[in-house]
Amino acid sequence: MARVKEDTAVVGKNWARLDGADKVSGRSIFADDVRLTGMLYGKVVRSPHVHARILSIDTSAAEALAGVKAVITPEDAKDIWLGINQPLLPTESVMHVGHEVAAVAAISEEIAARAAALIKVEYEPLTELLDVEKAMEDDALQLHEKAKGNIAWKQEEEHGDPDAVFAACDVIREDTYITNPSHNCFAEYHVCVADFSSPAKLKMWTPTQTAMLFQQSLAAGFKLPVSDVRLLTLNTGGGFTGRTSTRPHHFLAALLSRKAGRPVRLRSAGDEEFIMSRAGGRVTYKLRSGATKDGKLKVIEADLLFDTGAYIESQMIVTTLTSKYIHALYPIEASRYRGRLIHTNNLPYYFHHGGGIAQFQFALGQHMDALARDLGMDPVEFNLQNAVEEGYTTMDGAFYASCGLKECIEKTAALAGWKDKYGKLPKFKGIGIGIGAMASGAKGLFRHDTSAAFVKVTEDGKASLFVGIPDMGQSSHTTMAIICAEVLGISPEDINVVSGDTDSDPLDVGAFIQRGTFNTGNATKNAAMDARDQLTKKAAELLEVEEAVLVFRDRRVYPEGQEDKAIPFKKVVYETLHSQEGRFVMGRGFYSSPLEKGTMAYSFGAQIAEVTVDPGTGVVTVDKMTASHDVGRAINPRIVEGQMDGQIFSGMSQVLYEEILMEDGQVMNPSRLDYKMPRAFEMPEVEHIIVESIDPNGPFGAKEVGEGPIVCTMQAIANAVTNAIGTQVKEMPLSPWRVIKAIKD
Amino acid sequence: MAKQLITLIVNGDSYEVAAAPHQTLLEVMRDILNMTGTKRGCTAGSCGVCTVNGEQGEAILSCLALAVEWDGRPVTTIEGVEEGDKLHPVQQAFLEYGAVQCGFCTPGLVMSAKALLDVNTDPTEADINEAMAGAICRCTGHIKVKKAIREAAKALREREVNDGAS
Hints:
heterodimer; A: Aldehyde Oxidoreductase, domain 3; Aldehyde Oxidoreductase, domain 4; 3 domains; 7-stranded mixed sheet; 6-stranded mixed sheet; 19 helices; 31 strands; 28% helix; 25% strand; B: alpha+beta; Ubiquitin-like (UB roll); 2 domains; 5 helices; 5 strands
């Protein structure tokens, strides 16, 4: 069913980000730029061992150093727990390289570093467990009492009767894929400034994707009422799923501040950034699927094994997510899923950009491409024949109120010239397709999935919009201003977005699981409508018409069809605020999905990659990406393109470049020189196709674009490489040596 | 080591500061002069976020430049790029063409781009790629950054023509 695109004045036009002028002129403040009176500088003492018993910690030399104001050891961190089984500082054994053991605060970073080096820790090395397969053996060392068999988490799920469906299939295929450890590599390093000088109230400035969850986590850790923890979010230098929960440094900075009675800034330096951060871990994906000879996909089975490292915090979400995405793209008759998170003495891993879903699709997308070839089908034809459509409900209950997947595939294939290229390219040139889906928000992963917003209309005809969602570059604040401006009939430039202080921010779970545009967007729209409703009485009175016929547009208010009678928006506001009864205009709005759990809207996309493989070196060059995304409605098209660009970069980076090289539990390439990402000269030409399916529940029809595109990129590039060399490279990244090995084998 | 009294000339203003021989230009600007527009990244010369422009407008990694080396030599930082109350064409193009996302690497990107366009307002794709090769940007994928640099070059060329005409 085609829905009509609403006629809008500001939604759908290209708007420069509202914070852009500050960002291009050096005025934007990030946490590392915070300067407070009396501020101290922290430094963490980290374990050089993979697994070792702590015999003693001698802090006397550090404490004697002039300028040192606080030293903390596991004694000071008793009863503070991170996640399920992780004490803030270990009382008995260190569990991984880089494990926090102690910390200091001093009057300069230099003195803090010297003091940290003076802390003597005696260790007794213990048996190391670095391999997931070994960790699962019967006689393996148990790393945590509660994780029997070192299994930190397990999820098993079955829909339909997979065995019976497999038995009725003509073609069955099995593949095993691997993705390797990676790092978020946000431009802004891990950093926070804590002011806990009054022990009753903790203030913290730190980059985050969710001030609300940080606030709750710190309050729980320090046993404070939630309202006594105040999170101040300035600009956030990138998120990429890596700033969705607190890390040890947040607690350590607070503890140091409490002990010293002064604010403390703690920032990771050099290789620390790579050993403190938890991005993706090594994952093995065993996939099996079956189809009938007419090309109909019937059943998918997936067995995922995650190296979750030494601890588990909220990583178990990854099984919830990946189990859902088996069903997301193709209507199948049965499925079987198993996901297990295994403890080792590797770094405790979390997520990289793509949240585990894009990495899973690297595997599933290649597997489907191979299945299509087994069936003698062109992958584009296979995907078109099997793709989900609007109105479909997946086996695990996701309903697609809008779905532009087939349109994405068709338009991308046409623009890329797929038919003229697939199977017709010279040797070592390849073309590949990847398709994907992404939820806009997910109720049930948390108790609620609510966003709220306030709109305060001021007498100059402008408005302040209060939202709790952080903007870590995805431009959500500008998006919300556009939505608010559309409803009030003013310009986004008239909106002052106020955000980043939990004392005044309306409730918002945060900027992740792609909930911003849909959830906070709906909340903003509702708040703006509430504010507008507070103006209509006076406007109707001034215009001498019924409230129902009023149009708010272009900073004016007029009766529908009678623009000549328009009065300025500012006049309506002024007359309302200065009315005799004394009024205010303060709109409130919130959005919570009507579902008990799950997601109201899904985005879809397709990407086609064209690559050249150098058979001598194994180096893959991406020549061109053609990318489409069904965003429902593009609130700000240039920003939509920018989101697609960034995710194509990140997907390309992960599938071809990024790998934390681990050797005996140590990170071998802990720097931005040795941990590779594409530079400007390596980026291909990108063609964008924005598909607008107008979601019935999204604000002005909009859905997410914050993580959907990356789901398509890795698989598209991997499939193009397969097309170029005639065999799959089943382990990511597709580093030159892996490509060469695949060619030679 | 004993500190030295040096004069840093940043964006046309002179500052007398005592700097230890091992202190970098980045440290002195951020921590002594409180000029935080220039960001601190890897501090090892591999990410480009701390880029400023030197005497000849050349791109300098301020995390690798020792402050004492810059005694008496003019430095331009992101805070000194605006032309009066107007954005510089490079800044304007970054803003207009969507080259800004999280904004952390943006000051470094702007300074790298400006170093190129100050001496070459008609850069080839290869010139742009070379000028930006030292920069890491995780958000934009460099796509719109390169577009903005091409657009800024166009604006600067137009300005050259207009300046010549008047």
